[in-house]
TrEMBL record:
UniProt keyword terms in alphabetical order: ATP-binding, DNA-binding, Isomerase, Magnesium, Metal-binding, Nucleotide-binding, Topoisomerase
Protein name: DNA topoisomerase (ATP-hydrolyzing)
SMART domains membership: HATPase_c, TOP2c
Family, as annotated: Belongs to the type II topoisomerase GyrB family.
Taxonomic lineage of the native organism: Bacteria, Candidatus Collieribacteriota
Gene3D superfamilies according to UniProt: 3.30.230.10, 3.40.50.670, Histidine kinase-like ATPase, C-terminal domain
Pfam families: DNA_gyraseB (PF00204), DNA_gyraseB_C (PF00986), HATPase_c (PF02518), Toprim (PF01751)
C-alpha cells in the first residue's frame, strides 16, 4: 500500500517551466485538438492515481460555457505544507516542471499522470488556472496566469470558495479531502481550436473507468446540457466484453493476473483475452492508467508468450499417429495465425519512477523489464488455463489451424495470380494516369469515383505531382474477405498495383509510390459508402499505411453560391445557411445556388480549385489512434450482423463523419 502520508517531502523539483511554452509539442504531442484534449487527460489521470491508490471514489469533469474545463476528486488533496524550496508544495507541483509525488515510490506505487508534470504543463499552456485543495476542514487556494501564481497559496474557508467551485464539484464540500482544478487553454498556443469535444472526452473517461474498477467518473457539459456517468466493477474484463459486443465470441474470457519482480522492480500484470470469429486481431494495452496506443514492451511480452504456449501445446497434443500420418506437418504457424480473431487487453502496473515512456505523451512503453514480466505471467497463466480447460484449448487451436490453412490457401491463390502476371511484375493499370514525379514524398494518388469524375480530375490535376485512379461502381466489402478474393477483384487489384507496395506477406510500405493516397468521392450517400469500403480495405489489409498517416479524405463542396458575378463554394448545409446570412437581402434574392450531385458535374477547373489544389483544398487525414473504436466501427458497419449496423446508422445519421 502506498504511503498514507502524502506531504511536501514527496514533491521533488527537477527543472523550470519555461521550455513548455517554447516547445509545447514536446510535452503534449501537438497543439491541435489532440494536444488540447491531452491537457484535460493529464489532470484527470492525476485524480485517477488517487483512485488507484484507494484514496478516491469519485471524479467529476465539467466542460464550461466559457471554454474552461474543471476536474475534481475526493482523494487526499495535493499537499499544501511548506516544501524544502520554501513555498507551498501546491505551488511547486503546479508551477515547476517535473515536480511531483510520482517520482517518489513512497507516495504512489502506480500512476499514469505525473502529479506536477502534467499539472504544471497544463498550467503553462493555459491563460488562467485555479486550484482549490481541501484537507479536512481547511481549504487552500491558488490561481495562476500562464503558469505564474497570482499570489502565494492561501488558506480560505468553505464559505469563501462556495461560489468559486461550480455546482458539479460540490462533492468537495462533503468529502474530507480532495482537489479541484479549473483551467482555460491558451488560444495563442492552441490556434486551431480550444473547443473541447464531448464525445472524445466521454470515450477517454469510459476507457479509464474500465481500468479502475469501483471508481465513479462523472462528465458534465454545461454548453449543451449533456452528461455521462461511468462505473464498472469488473475492470478490464468489462472492457473486453465491450470491445467484443459486435463479434461472435468462440469461448469464455481468459483472465490472467500476477505480480513479479524484474531487476528489483515490482510489476503487476493483468491480461484478458478471447478469440472471436473475425479475421483480424484487436489488442489494447495500458501502462498504469495510460492507453499505450503504440504498444511497446508489454505487448511484445504478451505476443511472445502467446506464441510459445500455443506452439508448445500443439506439439504436445499431436499424437504419434498424427505425426506419422503427416497431419498438419506442412503448417508453419506465423504470428498472424496465432492471433487471428483475438481480442485482448494487456495492463501493467508499476512504480512511476521506473516506468519508461517513449515521450511525455506516453503512447509507447520501453521497459525491457516489462516485457519479461508480462512474458512470465502470461506464459504461466495461459499454460495452466489450457491444461485445465481442454475444450477451450481445442477451440483456440482449431481457430489457429483454420487461420494457417486459409493463409496458405490465399498465398497459393495469390501466387497463382502472380504467375499469370496479374500483380507483381505487372505494368501499371491502364486506368491510372500517373504523375511525372517519381519521388513518393512529392507525389499523391487520387482514388476517384467514376469515369466522369476521373476524366475531370485527369484534366484538372497537377500532372507533375498528382496521379488519378478512377474506380467504377462499388468495390468489394473486404471486412470478411481473404486475400485471394481481394486480388481477384479488378478495382482493388488495380489499386494494389498502383500503390506499388504489394499486399499480404509481400507488402513493403517502403515501396509505397505516393506519400498521400486521397479518397475523392461524391458528397452523397453512395460516395460515403464507397469511401467506407475503401477505408475498410485500407484498415483491414494495409493497416501500416493508415498508421503512417498516408490515407486522406478529400472534401468536395456541396454547393456553389453565385451572386453579383461572384462565386463561393460551401461544404455543408450549415455553412450554406451561414454564408447566405452574410449577404444583403437583394444579393440573397438573386443568388443562384448550385447543388453538386457528384464530382462529375464539376468541370476540371472547378474540381482543381475546390478539391485538388493544395493551396485551397480541405483534406482530412485518417488516423487510428483509437484503434479499438475504429475496429468496432468497421465491425459494426461492414460486418454480417444487420441489427448493430441499423442501430449505428440510426444513431449517427444526423452527424455522420467518416473520420476515424
Amino acid at each position: 500500500m502506498a504511503n498514507q502520508n502524502y506531504t511536501a517531502k514527496d514533491i521533488t523539483v527537477l527543472e523550470g517551466l519555461e521550455p513548455v511554452r517554447k516547445r509545447p509539442g514536446m510535452y503534449i504531442g501537438s497543439t491541435d485538438e489532440k494536444g488540447l484534449h491531452h491537457l484535460l487527460i493529464e489532470i484527470v489521470d492525476n485524480s485517477l492515481d488517487e483512485a488507484i491508490g484507494g484514496y478516491a471514489k469519485n471524479i467529476y469533469v465539467c466542460l464550461h460555457k466559457d471554454g474552461s474545463v474543471s476536474v475534481s476528486d475526493d482523494g487526499r488533496g495535493v499537499p499544501t505544507d511548506k516544501h524544502v524550496s520554501g513555498v507551498s508544495a501546491l505551488e511547486v507541483a503546479m508551477t515547476k516542471l517535473h515536480a511531483g509525488g510520482k517520482f517518489s515510490d513512497s507516495a504512489y506505487k502506480a500512476s499514469g499522470g505525473l502529479h506536477g508534470v502534467g499539472a504544471s504543463v497544463v498550467n503553462a499552456l493555459s491563460t488562467n488556472m485555479q486550484v482549490i485543495v481541501r484537507h479536512e476542514e481547511n481549504f487552500f487556494l491558488q490561481t495562476y496566469k500562464v503558469g505564474t501564481p497570482d499570489f502565494p497559496v492561501k488558506k480560505t474557508t468553505q464559505k469563501e470558495v462556495q461560489n468559486t467551485i461550480p455546482e458539479y464539484h460540490h462533492n468537495l464540500f462533503t468529502a474530507n479531502s480532495g482537489t479541484f482544478t479549473r483551467f482555460w487553454p491558451d488560444n495563442s498556443i492552441f490556434k486551431i481550436t480550444t473547443d473541447f469535444n464531448f464525445s472524445n472526452i466521454r470515450e477517454k473517461l469510459q476507457e479509464r473507468a474500465y481500468l479502475v474498477a469501483g471508481v465513479y467518473i462523472h462528465l458534465f457539459d454545461e454548453r449543451n446540457d449533456k452528461q455521462a456517468n461511468f462505473y464498472f466493477e469488473s475492470g478490464i474484463r468489462s472492457l473486453l466484453a465491450h470491445n467484443n459486443k459486435h463479434k461472435k465470441e468462440l469461448h469464455e474470457q481468459i483472465y490472467i493476473a500476477g505480480n513479479t519482480v524484474e531487476s528489483d522492480i515490482p510489476i503487476g500484470v493483468e491480461v484478458v483475452m478471447q478469440y472471436t470469429d473475425t479475421f483480424s486481431d484487436n489488442l489494447e494495452s495500458f501502462a498504469n492508467t495510460i492507453n499505450t496506443y503504440d504498444g511497446g514492451a508489454h505487448l511484445t511480452g504478451f505476443r511472445t508468450a502467446l506464441s510459445k504456449v500455443l506452439k508448445n501445446y500443439i506439439t504436445a497434443n499431436t499424437s504419434e499417429s498424427e505425426k506419422k500420418n503427416g497431419k498438419n506437418k506442412d503448417l508453419d504457424f506465423t504470428p498472424d495465425d496465432l492471433k487471428e480473431g483475438l481480442t485482448g487487453v494487456v495492463w501493467v502496473k508499476m512504480s512511476s519512477s521506473e516506468i519508461q515512456f517513449e515521450s511525455q505523451t506516453k503512447t509507447k512503453i520501453n521497459n525491457a523489464e516489462v516485457q519479461s514480466a508480462v512474458y512470465q505471467v502470461v506464459k504461466k497463466g495461459l499454460e495452466e488455463y489450457l491444461e485445465e480447460h481442454p475444450q477451450t484449448a481445442q477451440i483456440i487451436i482449431a481457430k489457429v489451424f483454420l487461420a494457417a490453412k486459409a493463409r496458405m490457401a490465399a498465398k497459393a491463390a495469390r501466387e497463382a495470380v502472380v504467375r499469370k502476371g496479374a500483380l507483381e511484375g505487372m505494368t501499371l493499370p491502364g486506368k491510372l494516369a500517373d504523375c511525372q514525379e517519381k519521388d513518393p514524398q512529392r507525389s499523391e494518388l487520387f482514388i476517384v469515383e467514376g469515369d466522369s469524375a476521373g476524366g475531370s480530375a485527369k484534366q484538372g490535376r497537377d500532372r507533375k505531382h498528382q496521379a488519378i485512379l478512377p474506380l467504377r461502381g462499388k468495390i468489394l466489402n473486404t471486412e470478411r474477405a481473404r486475400l485471394d478474393k481481394i486480388i481477384e477483384f479488378e478495382g482493388l487489384k488495380d489499386l494494389i498495383v498502383a500503390m506499388g507496395m504489394g499486399i499480404g506477406e509481400t507488402m513493403d510500405t517502403n515501396k509505397l509510390r505516393y506519400s498521400r493516397v486521397i479518397i475523392m468521392t461524391d458528397a452523397d450517400v453512395d460516395g460515403a459508402h464507397i469511401a467506407t469500403l475503401l477505408l475498410t480495405f485500407f484498415y483491414r489489409h494495409t493497416k501500416p499505411v493508415v498508421e503512417g498517416g498516408h490515407i486522406y479524405l478529400a472534401t468536395p463542396p456541396l454547393y456553389k453560391i453565385s451572386y453579383d458575378k461572384k462565386g463561393t463554394y460551401v461544404y455543408s448545409d450549415d455553412e450554406k445557411e451561414k454564408f447566405l446570412k452574410t449577404l444583403t437581402d437583394q444579393q440573397r434574392q438573386k443568388a443562384y445556388i448550385q447543388r453538386y450531385k457528384g464530382l462529375g458535374e464539376m468541370n476540371p477547373e472547378q474540381l482543381w480549385e475546390t478539391t485538388m489544389n493544395p493551396e485551397t483544398r480541405i483534406l482530412k487525414q485518417v488516423s487510428i489512434q483509437d484503434a479499438v473504436r475504429a475496429d468496432e466501427v468497421f465491425a459494426t458497419l461492414m460486418g454480417s450482423e444487420v441489427a448493430p449496423r441499423k442501430k449505428f446508422i440510426q444513431t449517427h445519421a444526423t452527424n455522420a463523419n467518416l473520420d476515424i
